[in-house]
Specification:
This protein has a seven-stranded mixed sheet with strand order 10-9-8-7-11-12-15, with helices on both faces. It has a six-stranded antiparallel β-barrel with strand order 1-2-5-4-3-6. It has two domains: about 90 residues, Translation factors (Elongation Factor Tu (Ef-tu), domain 3); about 140 residues, Rossmann fold, CATH 3.40.50.80. It is of the alpha/beta class and about 250 residues long. Strand 11, helix 5 and strand 12 form a beta-alpha-beta unit.
Length: about 250
Amino acid sequence: MLKDKIKKIYKAKVSNFEQLAKSSYFIEIETDNPINVKAGQFISVYCEGLTLRRPFSVFSNNNGKIGILFKEKGKGTKYIKSLKKGDLIDVTGPLGNGFEIMEKRSLLIGAGIGTAPVSFLKTKLDEKGIENIFAAGFLNKDEIPCCMKIDRIYTDDGSEGEKGSILNYLGILINEYKPEIIYTCGPFIVLKTVAQFGEMYGIETQVAMEKVMACAIGVCRGCVIDVKQNGRIINKTVCKDGPVFKGSEVVWQ
C-alpha cells in the first residue's frame, strides 16, 4: 500500500544557512527525533506553494543535524534559499539506498554539486579508518565549497588544482592510487565514465545516480533506469532502488 512506502514526515527547524561557494548554499536542519541517514541517501523537502517535494542528497549529519548542499535552479531551490535560521520546514526521509561501505582502499570521485554525498561518504570512511582519497572536479575555484575536505582538486579553467576535467585524470588516479573500489556522484557523463574505467581495470564501482524525481518513493515510475540483473535487463527506480547502484549493472546509454 502507498502508506507503507512513505517514510516518516518530520517538522524540522533550520539551524544554519551559509553560502559555501559562488553558486552553492548550505542549509542545516534539526528535528526533535534525529534522522538516521546513510551516505548516498536523500531527504525530500516540501517547498511552500509547490505540489511536489524536492529531493536533496545529504551532505552532512552532525549530532542529528542534517545538512544539504544546493544550487538555486528553480522554484523549489529558490524557496529553500529564502529560508532563515529558526524557520520550520517539512521533510521526509531518509529515502533510497545509500553507498555500501566496504573495507577496501577507496577512491571517491565527485563533480559539481554531486560532491555533496561523496563528501559525506568520506567522513564515514574516515570515521571507520578506511583508507581513501577524495578527488573532485569543478568549473573553477569559485565553485568549490569552502568547508569541503578534498584531497585532489580539478578545475576546468585551471584556477585551482589541476587544469581540465576530472575525467581526464581518472586513469592517472587509478594507476597511482590503485583503489579496490570507486564511489562516485556527479553528472551522467562522470558516472558513465567512472563505471567504464571500473570495468576496464576490474574495479568495483558504486554510482549515485542523479535523476529528476516526482514521488521519490518508487510509485510514479518517473525516474526509471535500465539495469542488468541475472542476464536480463530490468527497470529500477532511482529514488527507491537507488540512488546508488553498482556501475557494472547500469545500462549506460
